[in-house]
Amino acid sequence: MKEMTWKSRLNRLFAHRFALPVLCWCAALVFWLVQGAVAFAGDSSAKAKGTLTETSLPMESWQGSRGRTAHPRAS
Fold first, then answer.
1. Residues 6+ positions from 63 with CB-CB distance below 8 Å
2. Confidence category of residue 73, pLDDT binned at 50, 70, 90
3. Higher-pLDDT residue of 10, 24
4. pLDDT of residue 64
5. How far apart are CA 26 and CA 33, in angstroms?
6. Is pLDDT above 60 for 70?
7. Contact criterion met (CB below 8 Å) for 70 and 63
8. Chain-centre distance of CA 64, in angstroms?
9. What is the Cα–Cα distance from 37 to 29, expressed in whole angstroms?
10. DSSP count for the chain of H helices, then E strands
């Protein structure tokens, strides 16, 4: 039997109607999973070192998007 080249394999793959959208979705899923694993590893490392801290965002700092100003001097 004839061995398939990489070009013929790509042509065969992209001959299907939804091949490109599914391939892009799978690539995005892999990227998201890797990004989450890296973030988890970083958080675990910081927790083990004792440098993981909790921060809070005051409500006034993000309410400025509705017409109100976040800074009193910004008007």
1. 70
2. low
3. 24
4. 61
5. 11
6. no
7. yes
8. 27
9. 12
10. 2, 0
- Let me know: does 48 contact 42? Beta carbons within 8 Å: no
Contacts of 13 (CB under 8 A, 6+ apart): 19, 23
- Smallest CA-to-CA distance from 52 within 60, 41, 36, 61 is with 41
> Within 10 A of 33 (CB to CB), how many other CB atoms are there?
10
Instruction: Say if residues 52 and 46 touch (Cβ distance below 8 Å).
Output: yes
pLDDT, one tens digit per residue, over 28-55 is 999 999 999 999 999 999 999 999 888 8
- Could you tell me if 44 and 50 are in contact, meaning their C-beta atoms sit under 8 angstroms apart? no
Dump pLDDT digits (tens) for 56-67.
Answer: 888 777 766 555
